[in-house]
Task: structure prediction
Amino acid sequence: MGEYSVGIATRSKIYDVAKRLFYEQGVKATSYAQISREAEVNKGLIPYYFKTKPKLAMQVDREFLGGIDDAIWGHWGEDGLTDPEFHMIYELLMFRLLGRDPQVLRFYSDVMGDPDCHDACLALQRETMGQIAMGSGIAVSDAALQTIVAMVNGTESELVHALQSAQLHESVEDFVRRDVLCCYFLLGADTAAVEEVFDRSLDLCEGLTLACGPDFSVSVVAS
Result:
């Protein structure tokens, strides 16, 4: 095996071990020493391949969120949903997953609460909000979008924290409805029309949730 192939295999081994540990015990409780010990590699190779633990965690987070995308499109088909329906179902199923899987909730909370992940989380949120605006035919300036992203990111972070500390007493469907209406209101959408789409999205994912494995593989399953 060539040096390049060995490097790829080592990087993949570190990543796979880190994913499992992040799922089992969270990002905060996982150390370089533990990753290197379980991956059977020199501790110095982790920053060599991934720079920092937050960057490694963000890579896992991106894979996890992308897996939700793939699971939803795989279940309904590429042409089975409008863009607004997709994003509303995404929010509903993701929060259903967070509410039923404490390991995923801990991981997601660790990432969102890490100051070193903040800018990357904002970039992901900006990407999502831009897609929502474009898919809904809403024109929004870059300056306005930046403000909206900061507001929405703060709201999601607080929702995740409240869910983790059992401070939310509404159903997932009710607080996600409020979250969705807030997002679209900030973008300047017709909230009555948004309510109609949300009700349709709620019907489409009735009886469904997401399942996540210890490798952060995601699938749509019956709840």
